[in-house]
């Protein structure tokens, strides 16, 4: 396993498996972190690593419901990400790109994402486990910049939810 550490962020690669894991403590309640992952208007504010953006986000938040997040690159090119929710609860959100909607298989399944929102004092231990269909897919995702991109998005997510105080 290789690991990158900072005071709040842990990014791991399991060299013998298919998982990439990112953990970060966020100084906000789990319900806010969950909302930022499930409400399209909030997803648009943090999901893509800057200078990328999200041009469209849709979420049918139920087991079997579909999601769509369209990331737009700085050059204007758009990259849609479709998936289906497998588990939906305030503590855990699981989705996969193995299906695009209504249990319609995707052309090339790549990953299943398991998000955990664990209470941690006054904040949240946020854990994203990305399980790939093969070790080659995991290696490809690492080469695309998983550690840097997901870490930047986690920073953007934290900034968004930590800015809301009640």
CATH architecture: 2-Layer Sandwich
Cα end-to-end separation: 39 Å
How would you name the oligomeric state of the polypeptide chains in this document? single chain
Shape: globular
Could you give me the name of the CATH homologous superfamily? START domain
The helix fraction, in percent, is 25-40%
Please identify the top-level CATH class: Alpha Beta
| Mean residue pLDDT | 91
Low-confidence stretches: 1-7
String of helices and strands: EEEHHEEEEEEEEHH
Radius of gyration: 15 Å
Count of beta strands: 11
Number of domains: 1
Structural class: alpha+beta
Number of helices: 4
CATH fold node name:
Alpha-D-Glucose-1,6-Bisphosphate, Chain A, domain 4
Binned strand content? 35-45%
Major sheet characteristics:
9 strands, antiparallel
Structural features, described:
The protein is α+β, with helices and mostly antiparallel strands. The protein has one domain (2-162): Alpha-D-Glucose-1,6-Bisphosphate, Chain A, domain 4 (2-Layer Sandwich). Helices cover 25% and strands 44% of the residues. The chain has helices at 30-38, 40-46, 135-143, 146-162, and strands spanning 2-5, 9-13, 19-26, 53-59, 66-72, 78-89, 92-96, 99-101, 104-105, 111-120, 123-132. A hairpin with a 6-residue loop joins β4 and β5. It is globular. Mean pLDDT is 91; it is low at 1-7.
